[in-house]
């Protein structure tokens, strides 16, 4: 061997020894660290170490290849094949497994066409088939034509008006520009809000129909190279998706609040025509390839400059001369969905269910959304199976759910949660994983009581980049740092920064809507989390979200699939085996204080804006600055918002903060002494803790949205995906319902008083245990 070769060999050996020693030191350190909620950290660390060794990148790759070999929209034979595959993997791991059927109202497209009928000589017949050269999947005849689930059928021909993202503020700007959308087809771009909100706001303003397109500004070539050269949306790619009004309620449109079992009598269902979830005007999606000639042939005023997308011409708002004919023929039927449920019965607390879930259905192939999550969950189950074979049993029952029909409206998870409402009253947590991997950036969202739990889990899982997942998360995902996140990446909310980041720590976001935790957290009050690992992802809900894209851009070596299987599994294992449920309440108290201040600031801003507007109207300021070439309408006069009494809320928060600090000190002392109380004492303690998230709900629900019971978090009526914090108060202020705002302040104060009383009682119990 030559001297240089010898030297290089010694360097490699030295490096390997250092890494091995580092790994041993890290493992020794890990085994000596206490775990929140456990008497015996050594035993738990040993169990977790055995689990972490099992999830396999190669097996995750094989799962994803099999799951995505065919389009598998909910209710199709191919969807049933994926259910059978998941069920078999659950059984192989030793889980007690069943496939649960639901009968739900949903549509497939029969005929969809969009044609330009004016100006003369302009031709566009859409939707154009999705295609790029070199993609091995886009020509499968089973690929469903682009459509919007829950849209009604309809034939509409009308002039087109461009309305940017279709937010309420966008429609207000059109009104100021004297643009009337009544009877028009409104063209809006994806982004900023849930697609169903776009349809809802257009419907409120009298539009005859809606076309939703993907602008390259948001997730196409302006962000980077288009697929297949890069990860971003190519010209013909279309974002399919549901436009059901899930801000009213998710799940089957005909069974709000109860399960749509096949045996349910027809008389128990509400008619689809009467369902608050069903839109009233036809809506369909297009690619930017098909939308471009519509936009290019709009006249009228220039669009506001912030409305300009990335197509190479100036955007105008219309109406016309571009005129479009929409022909939508939907095939609505009651169709069968298949949830796959796998259980491991708890050895000591079998009636307490720790539920972990991912949806399985996809609009087309669904490599990222959702089957990166399905593949990771199957490797989690693989790890649980290995533990079972070694003789381990969880204290609490583990339930793994492979949900169906999520894309159409969170249907499978909602129906299952409604069916098992009484059993879920004892559920310590629901853990969600929708889009598991589209890139390397870990993120998470949770209720406040589980935010520190998530950080602790991330500290226990190695990152493919070295160190732990927590290290990478804290380093990359901090407020103030630039983000490459696309609108599609935020679909599961996991990388959204919290509305109140009260710690200088890895930011755990707030849960909004748009994924399967909704029924558990917002309807039943089960503490929930959602995790994901994201990156540039421009093929969301298109034919190009397939195995070829994932292998090239998402996770070529499937090491992030392995990471997510480990994080997901540790969440479930720790919650199932904790001696004391690992909830934390100072995050909750601090966050609620921040929300209260935000609400008071919102009211103050509304008051100041009303005063300024009144002064400007009296002084003629709007007319003085009017451009005669662009006539606009003066904004309407509004009464100055009255004073609202926040004192009950502030008083409740003061008590909650004191109780949370007492709980923190008492828990730390009890943990340090090894939770010396007997098992019966800890069981009674945990029974109280199980109530903690439920105390934040109200049986009456949110105003005009009774399905949503949670008083602190819910989807916004005009945002959809994004969370509204203290939504009853916030939306009352935003919509100028002042009496309702006062009443909602009292309701939120009451649930927080109840929460504070519970936390204080548990803190007292912990004091007694630690003596």
Explain this structure to me?
This protein has 771 residues and is α/β, with parallel strands linked by helices. 39% of the residues lie in helices and 15% in strands. It has 23 helices and 16 strands. Strands 1, 2, 4, 5, 6, 8, 9, 10, 11, 12, 13 and 14 form a 12-stranded mixed β-sheet that branches. The protein has a two-stranded parallel sheet with strand order 3-7. The chain has a two-stranded antiparallel ribbon with strand order 15-16. α6 (195-204) links the parallel β5 (185-189) and β6 (209-213). The model is unreliable at 1-26 and 481-496 (pLDDT under 50).
List the helices and strands and how they pair.
Blueprint: H1 3-32, H2 41-52, H3 57-67, H4 77-92, E1 96-118, E2 125-126, E3 148-149, E4 154-162, H5 168-176, E5 185-189, H6 195-204, E6 209-213, H7 216-219, E7 241-242, E8 283-286, H8 288-296, E9 323-344, E10 349-359, H9 371-389, E11 396-403, H10 406-409, H11 411-419, H12 421-424, E12 429-432, E13 441-446, H13 451-459, H14 469-476, H15 518-523, E14 528-534, H16 547-554, H17 559-577, H18 586-619, H19 621-624, H20 647-672, H21 679-689, E15 713-715, E16 723-725, H22 727-734, H23 738-770
Parallel strand pairs: 3-7, 4-5, 5-6, 6-8, 10-11, 10-12, 12-14
Antiparallel strand pairs: 1-2, 1-9, 4-9, 9-11, 13-14, 15-16
């Amino acid at each position: 061997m030559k001297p240089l070769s010898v030297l290089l060999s010694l360097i490699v050996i030295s490096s390997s020894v250092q890494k091995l020693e580092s790994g041993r030191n890290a493992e020794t350190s890990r085994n000596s660290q206490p775990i929140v909620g456990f008497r015996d950290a050594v035993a738990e660390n040993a169990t977790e170490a055995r689990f972490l060794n099992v999830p396999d990148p190669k097996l995750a790759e094989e799962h994803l290849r099999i799951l995505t070999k065919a389009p598998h929209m909910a209710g199709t034979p191919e969807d049933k094949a994926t259910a059978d595959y998941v069920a078999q993997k659950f059984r192989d791991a030793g889980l007690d497994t069943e496939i649960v059927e639901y009968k739900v109202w949903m549509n497939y497209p029969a005929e969809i066409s969009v044609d330009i009928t004016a100006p003369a000589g302009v031709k566009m017949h859409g939707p154009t088939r999705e295609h790029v050269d070199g993609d091995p999947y886009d020509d499968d005849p089973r690929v469903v034509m682009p459509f919007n689930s829950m849209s009604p059928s309809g034939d509409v021909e009308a002039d087109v008006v461009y309305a940017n993202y279709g937010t309420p503020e966008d429609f207000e700007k059109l009104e100021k520009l004297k643009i009337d959308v009544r009877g028009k087809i409104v063209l809006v771009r994806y982004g900023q809000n849930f697609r169903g909100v776009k349809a809802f706001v257009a419907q409120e303003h009298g539009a005859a129909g809606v076309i939703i397109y993907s602008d390259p500004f948001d997730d196409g070539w302006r962000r980077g190279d288009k697929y297949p050269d890069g990860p971003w949306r190519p010209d013909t790619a279309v974002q399919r998706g549901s436009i059901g009004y899930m801000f009213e309620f998710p799940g089957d449109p005909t069974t709000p609040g109860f399960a749509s079992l096949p045996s349910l009598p027809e008389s128990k269902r509400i008619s689809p025509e009467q369902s608050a979830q069903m839109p009233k005007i036809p809506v369909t999606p297009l690619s930017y390839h098909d939308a471009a000639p519509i936009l290019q042939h709009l006249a009228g005023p220039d669009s506001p400059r912030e409305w300009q997308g990335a197509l190479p011409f100036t955007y105008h708002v219309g109406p016309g001369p571009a005129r479009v004919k929409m022909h939508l023929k939907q095939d609505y039927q009651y169709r069968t969905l298949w949830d796959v449920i796998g259980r491991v019965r708890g050895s000591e607390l079998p009636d307490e269910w720790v539920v972990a879930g991912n949806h399985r259905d996809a609009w087309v192939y669904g490599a990222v959304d959702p089957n990166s999550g399905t593949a990771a969950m199957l490797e989690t189950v693989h790890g649980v199976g290995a533990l079972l074979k070694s003789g381990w049993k969880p204290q609490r029952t583990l339930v793994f759910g492979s949900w169906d029909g999520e894309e159409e409206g969170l249907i499978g998870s909602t129906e299952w949660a409604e069916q098992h409402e009484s059993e879920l009253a004892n559920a310590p947590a629901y853990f969600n994983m929708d889009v598991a991997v589209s890139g390397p950036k870990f993120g998470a969202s949770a209720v406040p009581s589980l935010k520190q739990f998530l950080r602790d889990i991330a500290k226990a899982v190695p990152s493919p980049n070295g160190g732990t997942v927590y290290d990478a998360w804290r380093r990359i995902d901090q407020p103030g740092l630039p983000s490459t996140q696309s609108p599609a990446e935020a679909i599961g909310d996991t990388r959204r920064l919290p509305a109140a980041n009260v710690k200088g720590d890895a930011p755990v976001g707030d849960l909004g809507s748009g994924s399967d935790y909704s029924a558990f957290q917002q309807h039943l009050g089960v503490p929930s989390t959602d995790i994901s690992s994201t990156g540039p992802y421009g093929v969301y809900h298109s034919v190009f979200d397939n195995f070829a894209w994932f292998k090239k851009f998402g996770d070529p070596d499937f090491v992030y699939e392995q990471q997510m299987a480990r994080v997901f599994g540790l969440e479930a294992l720790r919650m199932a085996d904790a001696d004391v449920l690992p909830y934390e309440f100072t995050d909750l108290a601090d966050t609620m204080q921040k929300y209260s201040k935000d609400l008071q600031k919102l009211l103050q801003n509304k008051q100041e804006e009303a005063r300024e507007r009144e002064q400007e109207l009296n002084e003629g300021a709007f007319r003085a600055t009017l451009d005669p070439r662009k006539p606009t309408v003066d904004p309407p006069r509004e009464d100055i918002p009255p004073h609202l009494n926040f004192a009950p809320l502030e008083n409740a928060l003061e008590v909650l903060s004191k109780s949370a600090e007492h709980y923190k000190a008492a828990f730390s002392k009890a943990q340090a002494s090894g939770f010396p109380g007997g098992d019966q004492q800890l069981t009674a303690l945990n029974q109280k803790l199980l109530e903690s998230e439920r105390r934040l709900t109200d049986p009456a629900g949110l105003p005009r949205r009774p399905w949503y019971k949670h008083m602190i978090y819910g989807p916004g009526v005009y945002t959809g995906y994004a969370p509204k914090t203290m939504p009853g108060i916030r939306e009352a202020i935003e919509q100028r319902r002042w009496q309702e705002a006062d009443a909602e302040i009292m309701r939120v104060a009451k649930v927080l008083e109840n929460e504070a009383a519970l936390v204080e009682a548990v803190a007292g119990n912990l004091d007694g245990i630690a003596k």
